[in-house]
Amino acid sequence: MTLISSNEIRSKFSALMSEMYKNEVPLYGDLLELVKDVNQTALSKDIQLQDQLKMTGEFSRLSLERHGAIRLGTADELHNMARIFAVMGMEPVGYYDLVPAGVPVHATAFRAVKAQDLNQSPFRIFTSLLRLELIKDEKLRQLAEQTLAKRQIFTEQALALTKKFEQQEGLSAVDADQFVHEVLETFRWHTQAPMTKALYDSLHEQHRLIADVVAFKGPHINHLTPRTLDIDQIQSGMMEQGMSPKAVIEGPPRRKCPILLRQTSFKALEEKVAFAANQGQELGTHTARFGEIEQRGVALTPKGRQLYDELLGKTRQQLGGAPTEHNAQQYMELLAKNFEDFPDSYAQLRQQKLAYFYYFPLNSHCSGVVQSDDEATIETLIEQGSLRFEPIVYEDFLPVSAAGIFQSNLGESSQTDYATISNLDIFEQSLGRKVVDEIALYEAIQQDSLQQALAQLSN
Ligand code: OOG
Ligand code: NI
After folding, report:
1. What is the model's pTM?
2. Residue range 78-103: mean pLDDT, rounded
3. Where are its TM segments located (predicted)?
4. Domain for residue 444, yes or no?
5. Is residue 353 in a domain?
6. Residue whose CA is closest, atom 1 of ligand 1?
7. Nearest ligand, CA 71
8. How far is CA 196 from CA 62, 209, 276, 432, in A?
């Protein structure tokens, strides 16, 4: 029996999810059109960028690239979600604690980990787990726990096929096809909420997010984000088309050499929901789903990340908190000013070890030159024109940005001060395994490409 690769299953699922979301949220389709136009223009204006994306293998994945997000209610749900994502070659990478930012969840991002797998299908899902223990009202917490304990967010077949995958280390074409359709059910929007509107309202009063997780049959996908090459152009395009994006773009300011991740979103949709009632149904609304766009730049080393966090922190401090609609202009000016301290050429970013790079051999006939991978040799090879470098794209998320995205669609008032500490251990216990360290992944990609390039130059 031929088994289908996890890359293929992930690609299929990503495409299917995009179709479903387009049907559920037509505005997402409009956004894809806008992103397509902006990307085409950006590429035709910048041959160097085109060349860079072709070298790194990102060119062909760009139009397919999406991330989504779901919010889960229990450890059990998270654990099974991890098993299901494993069928698609996705591992939990990184840990994001949103509690310090006033959002009662912690999270990871499920994604492929190897460069060639990412280039085949870079589909990622930001997956957060609700921290019910932070609900102060004990009675309400118990009600929420009971509600979550009763629900089953996966279809029987999805779980059965996952088990089959684990046993035979793969799925046949027929099984893989059924698997993606079954798993899609978990992400679907439900217009019916199996609880009373009164209970929903009390949960909502504790935190909107709690209502969003607990009141529904499943963890509906709440956004699906395409990747653009020019987010400022998208931001103004969205305003022209009346899509009302959030006031500021999250992340670093506009730069010649983009770093990490910049994101903007438009407000959540208000959707009709039928709540359970003694007699029939009671109608209400719920806002959860929204649109988001992102621009990705080079992955930073811990040293680069520290500088990023410092400059972002300084900006927020000068502003006196998180940016709002009222001080957006001032925020963007401060941000641009502070980030002048962040070198803005790939050469400097590489030399100062602020970011990660791929290395490519340019001249395969300089035998004898390359004896070691020490820094002096590498610098000489670059100067000689024998070695070329290109940025490794950031594949992950940013906790401060994520908190900003959560808040923009939950309403600003939903920021609560939770007096608690981060808890990676609790998260990993719920997940049933350790999360992958993203820095180790970037290091390995850089190191592999350097070794390969040197080996080719020595041939
Ligand atoms: C997830 C928000 C985080 C991002 O891109 O940072 C996120 C959520 O709202 O559930 O998707
Ligand atoms: Ni997102």
Report:
1. 0.94
2. 94
3. none
4. no
5. no
6. 69
7. 1
8. 43, 17, 5, 33
DSSP 251: S
At 396, list the tokens: 């992950």
Pick from 98, 405, 378: nearest CA to 264: 405
Q: Say which residue, 419 or 83, is predicted with more confidence.
A: 83
* Domain's final residue, options 346, 380, 405: 346
Name the closest-CA residue to atom 9, ligand 1: 406
Query: pLDDT per residue over 156-202, tens digit each?
Result: 999 999 999 999 999 999 999 999 999 999 999 999 999 999 999 99
The verdict on the CB of residue 128 being under 6 Å from ligand 1 is yes
Q: Determine the atom of ligand 1 nearest the C-alpha atom of 402.
A: 6
- Is residue 443 a part of any domain in this protein? no
d(CA 406, CA 140): 23
Measured from the Cβ of residue 354, the count of other Cβ atoms closer than 10 Å reads 21
For the chain, how far is it from start to end, CA to CA, in angstroms? 40
Cα–Cα distance for residue pair 126/159, rounded to 1 Å: 21
d(CA 392, CA 259): 10
What is the span of the domain harbouring residue 209? Answer: 6-298+395-436
Average pLDDT, the chain: 92
Q: Evaluate whether 435 touches 94 at the Cβ level (below 8 Å).
A: yes
401 close to ligand 1 (CB < 6 Angstrom): yes
Task: Read off the CATH number of the domain in which 20 is found.
Answer: 3.10.180.80
> C-alpha angle 225/229/231, rounded to 5°?
70
Residue 135 has pLDDT above 90, yes or no: no
Edge-to-edge strand order for the sheet containing 270-276? 192-193, 270-276, 281-287
Instruction: Give the angle 105-108-112 at the CA atoms, nearest 5°.
Output: 160
Whether the predicted pLDDT of 219 surpasses 80: yes
pLDDT digits (tens, 9 = 90+) for 105-122: 999 999 999 999 999 999
74 lines ligand 1 (CB under 6 A): no
Q: Does 320 score more than 80 pLDDT?
A: yes
Residue closest by Cα to atom 4 of ligand 1: 402
Q: How many domains does the chain have?
A: 2
Residues 267, 401, single domain; the answer is yes
Tell which one of 67, 78, 405, 414 to mutate to probe ligand 1, the residue whose CB is within 8 A of the most ligand atoms.
Answer: 405
**Burial 301-313, CB ≥16 within 10 A → b, else e:** beebbebbeebbe
Residue owning the nearest CA to atom 5 of ligand 1: 402
**Above 90 in pLDDT, residue 344?**
yes
Q: Does residue 407's CB lie within 6 angstroms of at least one atom of ligand 1?
A: no
What pLDDT does 418 receive? 58
Q: Is the per-residue pLDDT at 406 higher than 80?
A: no
Distance CA 114, CA 97 (A): 25
1 assigned to some structural domain: no
